[in-house]
Amino acid sequence: MNGTEQRDDDSRAERVSDTFRKLYGGSPDGVWAAPGRVNLIGEHTDYNDGFALPMALPQTTLLAARARTDGRLRLHSAQGDGRITDLAVAELAPGALQGWTGYPAGVVWALGEAGHPVGGADLHFDSTVPTGAGLSSSAALECAVAVAYDELYGLGLAGPELARTAQCAENGFAGVPCGIMDQMASVCCTAEAALHLDARTPEDHAQVPFDLRGQGLRLLVIDTRVTHDLGDGAYAALRAGCERAAALLGLPALRDLPTGELARALEALPVELAPLVRHVVTENARVTDAVSRLREGNAAALGPILTEGHASLRDDYRVSCAETDLAVSAALSAGALGARMTGGGFGGSVIALVADGREGVVAESVTVAFGSAGHRLPRILEVTPAAGARRLAPAPGTR
Length: 399
Ligand code: ADP
Ligand code: MG
Hints:
The chain is α+β, with helices and mostly antiparallel strands. The chain is 40% helix and 21% strand. The longest helix has 22 residues, at 3-24.
């Protein structure tokens, strides 16, 4: 982290502490940060026990938190409706909460369900992760709570356990059937690296150096501002389709189908399932390929891998939409090395890998293309691989 980023973190930590004091009286025990993420490659693979390659974003959700001894859980977000939600930890139950509070409260519930001795807390959130843009603001919210509770209640849990707890909150409490990737990225990523995730054994993840700037590259995130709704059943249906295909093939998960057996499997499967299987198997291979290219120090070679991944999501998995397709094609026409939708799909964000100096032209071309097509204009950010969830204040080692 450079000096400017350190000062930004410090001043944001001070700001959320100030707001905490105004809301709840007295100081927080600490301030934690958890990032959003983009997935470079490996989409819809995590729930097939497969591979992914996410990186954390510089955009984070900050949490000022203080433990309470009376079992009350109070929640406030700068991005919420201004109210403090006051709950009893002992009464937390899946499905009982509507809206954003289900994500953080779900983490407290999930820790309790896993047998950890956790109580209440006063929590105030403030986030720079765009919400509903496929950049995992929900995981950032959950993972901030997971790392804060880990310290506040002295749990000593490892990163993948915290990620599992956060996923359990999203699945079991908030009712969103996501895989483990978002939470693993938010907790376990490190700066200047992408996270090689094996969803079957998250504890075996590896950091793959990803020195974008050093290799003369830039990464753009194009938020199409089309809000996905993964709760609408489409995601669950895709997931169920993959599970059915694996069962028909007699495999524990689609991850277990080797590329060499793909052609035979496709012939044996019902027509509606074959494209799903083709996507998952080829996508896992693309992750392996991307990791090799990065390890060789050839990040530019990710370009064609990203673009192939997009075609697979568009044509086989069918989770793209007009806006994400347009962002990809406009970025490529303007000279991007590769581009693809990232996240669950049905809108959300596109990433574009571009050579240093081309980022302005690509961003401009995508914006113009959206204007001509009559779409709402996209929000375009340039991102670098940032650190995973961590305590900001008091600074680690100063207590
Ligand atoms: P994504 O995770 O891609 O941003 P989701 O639909 O999974 O999209 O999660 C977005 C939801 O998470 C928001 O609608 C809101 O309920 C909740 N959320 C995320 N960050 C915050 C925040 N800082 N404050 C309040 N709610 C938040
Ligand atoms: Mg989410």
